[in-house]
Amino acid sequence: MAFSYKKDTSGWEKLKKQLLSMDKTELQVGWFDTYYGSENSNLPHAFVAELNEFGHTNGPDAMIPGAQTPPRPFMRVGFREFIEKGRADQNFLAVIKTVISGQNVFKAMNQAGPYFVKHLQKVMDEWDTPPNARLTIELKGFNDPLNKTHQLIDKVDYRVERKGK
């Protein structure tokens, strides 16, 4: 009796191709080409987020020139902690399952995008360390370090694109 064996790696090759496509694609969360109006010198939202993240010294046109704003690392600490504590695991798993099943990686990541936006906004809304200075609280009327008009938080968005673009 003869025995024959045919090695079929087509399924594995397809899966490998799908997984490699994930490696070439990234989901970015942040601010993309959005700006404050003239009430805030038409500053890009991403720049204001960076000023809050790393701290800064107010310029001469600021409400309180020369004042020091301390770092409030909501991205490096707050959002990162959200990811590292596994709160996004189900979304990562959903993207992987979608891609493994042969569906488009862009579609899978676009489905996950709003979830990450919502949670970055939540981190920003809840960020309270360090609190605003007493004078800032008086001027704003409340103590919310990352919020003055809610515009920065409202403008958080996501995009999916090929790495290196």
Write the layout of secondary structure elements.
Blueprint: H1 10-23, E1 25-30, H2 45-54, E2 56-57, E3 68-69, H3 74-84, H4 89-100, H5 105-126, H6 134-140, H7 151-154, E4 157-162
Antiparallel strand pairs: 1-4, 2-3
Helix pairs in contact: 3-5, 4-5
Q: What can you see in these coordinates?
A:
By secondary structure, this protein is mainly alpha-helical. The protein has one domain. The protein is built from 7 helices and 4 strands, in the order αβαββαααααβ. It is elongated. It starts with 9 loop residues before the first helix and ends with a strand.
Keywords:
mainly alpha, elongated, two-stranded antiparallel sheet, 165 residues, 4 strands, 7 helices, 10% strand, 48% helix
Quick rundown:
The protein has seven helices and four strands. It has helices at 10-23, 45-54, 74-84, 89-100, 105-126, 134-140, 151-154; strands spanning 25-30, 56-57, 68-69, 157-162. α3 crosses α5 (105-126) and α4 (89-100) runs antiparallel to α5 (105-126).
